[in-house]
């Protein structure tokens, strides 16, 4: 008996699509791969992009399959942005693109030519913490710390989003100015999982910053 | 140094640092993204390659062929290691039963069967998908219900029997006989297992994410048939563990084998969808509880019989363990069954045994209280015991459970609740209140540390202890600062390196009490070294204070004493058997308020409170975080967490963070934690106990009891999800 889940069909599909890509690609940068083009996995070409990361412009030639998350963590060695799932399920990889928070694991780096990226490293340093980072320390808004950069990136964006009048699932009155309530914060932070369960303390940290900025 | 009698008065009884709310010393590194976790250590080894795991897609059987040629020829691929070429490898340790890698046998789904090493992740992952594996599948049974039906009446080999349970239960005025079910659960820590491995001159270094450094060093040496001296493990930051990182896992083995074959360092992170089937989990259980009591509430008979699945040779989930100690009752019966299955290996997850056992026992106690017409908190208090109910000659060292119940009730306003289910409403919400007791043992393990007084007066503490978010960095720094009379910022703590003295490690909630004891022992040794250095015979005549030492009239700074070179001391605190002459345990009472929507049945938690008795609280900030974090996990256990088993194919279907749901921000309400801050001299020199697992124990039952109080529907099958009660809700 073979494997209960048959991979044959998928493999054939894969090979076919790889060939299509190989034919369609204008620049065959991988000389060594030519002879085995039929076996080259789909999308295995490079692109050159320019983007700004934490204020520094970068030109990079990257594998088209590289996520924004791996571009930060691997190519630029900015490992503050975390990989918790690589599937948009946990929020550990949250950073901002042109000022808006994204799950960087769900976004291919090649889509960000010309974009401005901010990661946790651009927010503050151990000796010079941003108010949100300091509030996380003061309120013990973390334990293991692995979800923390994502929580902080999200938290900063959440306050921006509320100020900008962007409603959430729990916003009652779409015409009134949105208030920074516990539920608004909880709802908007719910894409950032903390398995250590620091939620109450994270809420306290965000609330403190919101009050200071009010 | 041996801890062989209860701690007397010592420096911690006049503490200035220990016991004070102290923000985490590693906080700034973590919030700025500068704390280096395992997969992120670009700096430790040049030329790192990336390994992508290949895993089995059957639960049990034999690999007949692995076709790797296409993968080998794929771009960027440097090496491939397959389980067939490696051949069978030793089981890593006697605490594990499932093989991690090696040989043609497949023992469970997503067992590692290969690793593809390439220049980049993208290349390795794509190439791994080109590997074709043929299997001979062995059909297995994965049906716990069926196993339970077979073993339910078998009491031939009980864990314990005291008195005559059957007769006492028969004679009892009020009885309860119910079954409860808890699903398999996953640790689901946020950082997946990850390792970087590098070989140099036959020696192996692995930078990884692991709770127990020495266990893992030994296990890796065993697996690779190496001298442990040639293996180094380093794990300074760990993105959560909860038991999942107690042992050597496949990421380390794959990285080591890949690096050996590629001739370059290799890093491997388990992709999230592989974590839950490749690693360990908490086994599902079916539990039968019978309680008999007199009308006055005194328990006369109690039986807890449970079955859980386990990998062959394993121990499953010890759901009966708390029932042996928690409540009084003269006639007792404890039975544990195992159903061997080729599911992934069941092993320790936070509060192994108690977490699942209390999910059942504490509903049973609630049901029993209702039958007796008693307040459930009072019913528990009536059945408190200060001695081991199985061995009345053995006392608890310190047990303040009743105080937890009283303090918790009062702070929560428990007395104001409506005891009749389904009677309280707030708008469209049915309001319910529930409570539960919590019990968790508090073991200790030998723990060593090295302390190095620097010429500038700073102190460096080195120990292979780990900080998995528990706050070890901070409490160890506090302990050293206290003992040496130093300000906290003059102490630097270094953890997680197997080159440091062997510690207790992080597990079984023994870490805090044990590792601070080890640090204390090393600091006492350093005090002696300092005494020698300044020519004083009686170390006890010295006073360590304000970064200096005073003897009689003389006052010197520690910096001046070490000015010619660092002074080093190393010591291990050994816990002798005398600690076990009394039962050292922790206790809590949990209180929960929920709202259940009258129409949709949606459950929303409204507030939670825990009152904890866990010895001296070394740092109220980090201890509280441990407890609220446990409460969050308890909410998950109550309401959503479920590693659903595919009973046909033998694997966990819900194997990522989208399908295995854990609580998010919106699920968690206001939380309050009360610490009694009792001292337990029997436990450790600091009179401290564990708290990290206690916070989880009992929480799920408190939630389930609150849902019952809100709706009148009793769900005995976790998680408490809509499908199990929606059709029974009171008419709108
Ligand atoms: S790593 Fe991106 S959401 Fe989890
Ligand atoms: S701090 Fe550990 S997952 Fe949030």
Question: Any overview of this molecule?
Answer:
The complex is a heterodimer of chains A (214) and B (732). Chain A has 214 residues and is α+β, with helices and mostly antiparallel strands. Chain A folds into 2 domains: 11-21 and 45-122, Ubiquitin-like (UB roll) (Roll), CATH 3.10.20; 131-213, DNA polymerase, domain 1 (Orthogonal Bundle). In chain A, α3 (131-138) crosses α6 and α4 packs across α5 (182-189). The longest helix of chain A is centred in the first third of the chain and has 17 residues, at 8-24. Chain A is built from 6 helices and 5 strands; from the N terminus they run αββαβββαααα. Residues 1-38 of chain A have low confidence and may be disordered. Chain A has a 5-stranded mixed sheet, sandwiched between helices. Chain B is an alpha+beta fold. Among the domains of chain B are: 2-35 and 444-580, Aldehyde oxidase/xanthine dehydrogenase, molybdopterin binding domain (Aldehyde Oxidoreductase, domain 4), CATH 3.30.365.10; 353-442 and 584-728, Aldehyde oxidase/xanthine dehydrogenase, molybdopterin binding domain (Aldehyde Oxidoreductase, domain 4, 2-Layer Sandwich), CATH 3.30.365. Chain B is 25% helix and 27% strand. In chain B, the strands form 8 sheets. Chain B has a 7-stranded mixed sheet with strand order 4-6-2-13-10-11-12. In chain B, α7 (213-224) links the parallel β11 and β12. The mean pLDDT of chain B is 97. The chains are: A alpha+beta (214), B alpha+beta (732). The interface between A and B is large, with 81 and 80 residues. The structure holds FE2/S2 (inorganic) cluster (FES) (2 copies).
TL;DR?
Chain A is α+β, with helices and mostly antiparallel strands. Helix content of chain A is 34%, strand content 13%.
**SS strand fraction of chain B:** 25-35%
- Number of self-contained structural domains of chain A: 2
The major pleated sheet of chain A works out as:
5 strands, mixed
**What's the architecture of the largest domain in chain A in CATH terms?**
Roll
Q: What is the C-level CATH assignment of the largest domain in chain A? A: Alpha Beta
Reading off the top of the CATH hierarchy, the class of the domain at 353-442 and 584-728 in chain B is best stated as Alpha Beta
Structural class of chain B: alpha+beta
